[in-house]
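DM from R.C. (forwarded with permission)

"hey, sorry to bug you on a friday — could you get me a structure for this? deadline for the figure draft is monday and I only need the backbone to look sensible"
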Amino acid sequence: MEFPVIDPVAIAIGPLKIHWYGLMYMIGFAAAWWLGTVRAKKPNSGWTRDEVSDLVFYGAMGVILGGRLGYVFFYNFSKFLADPIWLFKVWDGGMSFHGGAIGVLVAFALFARSAGKRYFEVADFMVPMVPIGLATGRFGNFINAELWGRTSDVPWAMVFPSDPDRLPRHPSQLYECLLEGVVLFIVLWVYSAKPRPAAAVTGLFGVGYGAARTFVEFFREPDAHIGYLAGGWLTMGMLLSIPMIILGIAMMVWAYRNDTRQATA
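My reply, with the result:
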């Protein structure tokens, strides 16, 4: 199956060009804001519309700054050492989910301090909305024909134009869009609809994302300049995701043992 011809530029007005990938980020942030305001309107939510807007802004900064730093230091540190200015060349591409996750966690702490809220009051409120951004981001990867999967003979395998070998591959971006995005969103949205112990929702996100990403890594082609890390199967994505599962489980166990109830709106 040939990859469909998709112009990476969604809107072009003279010299101004808006790429689909950037538009996907905007859609993700807008969806997070809208879903947050929906929950903020519920009785006794403890949140206002302005607080949701501020939190989404903090989160967006965390995603962008953390995602770029994470990609540079986790996936291409050697290139950074050779050309430190490359860190600021965001137009060259390169964003890391795990770096973005760290950036968002820091953003939660900064927002919590400025708003006078407890850390997990902020994190548990916001993380159910995060998978929507993951879904749109992965779909943006698909449109860009990047981060494709390993070679395969499944009927839906695609030949991506960016693949120099022109081999049929798993459309792993769509697998991630479905599992890390749609499925994880449904699980977290339903789970967080009722009051849960503080940190339980955030812990479930760690377990859910880590498990989904680790699973998809078996179908995703590792970064060419990194390859497999051990045994011909371990990838950098797995190495960064497995600790998320362990930490997420530990957080949920801690949350339920303490049973400190905190409404997630």
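R.C.: lifesaver. The chain has a mean pLDDT of 90.
me: no worries. DSSP finds nine helices and six strands in the chain.
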